[in-house]
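Q: What residues go here?
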């Protein structure tokens, strides 16, 4: 995962393809001792339907380079936490509109 001062990251898939993604938000979990990032491919929010494919990963930031390493979320408990955080985020977004 690479990121700078912007709210974008470049995600590289298993085939080595790069995808520029917009960061929706990040958060840390003391319970799991990890940081998480929720993101979606840039351009996907321009589509005709209202569905955006949001991805989530845990990550380990590298303070020296500004990069980080994405890791898959491995447990149902972590997915429950991510889903809860996403629902809270989306509820706040709706209140602001």
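A:
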């Amino acid at each position: 995962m690479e990121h700078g001062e912007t709210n974008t990251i470049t995600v590289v898939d298993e085939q080595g393809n790069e995808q520029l993604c917009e960061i929706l938000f990040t958060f840390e979990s003391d319970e799991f001792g990890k940081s998480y990032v929720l993101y979606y491919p840039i351009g996907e929010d321009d589509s005709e339907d209202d569905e955006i494919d949001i991805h989530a990963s845990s990550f380990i930031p590298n303070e020296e380079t500004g990069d980080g390493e994405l890791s898959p979320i491995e447990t149902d408990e972590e997915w429950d936490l991510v889903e809860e955080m996403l629902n809270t985020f989306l509820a706040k977004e709706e209140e602001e509109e």
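A: Context that may help when evaluating the design: Residues 28 and 34 are 6 Å apart (CA to CA). The first helix runs from residue 76 to 96.
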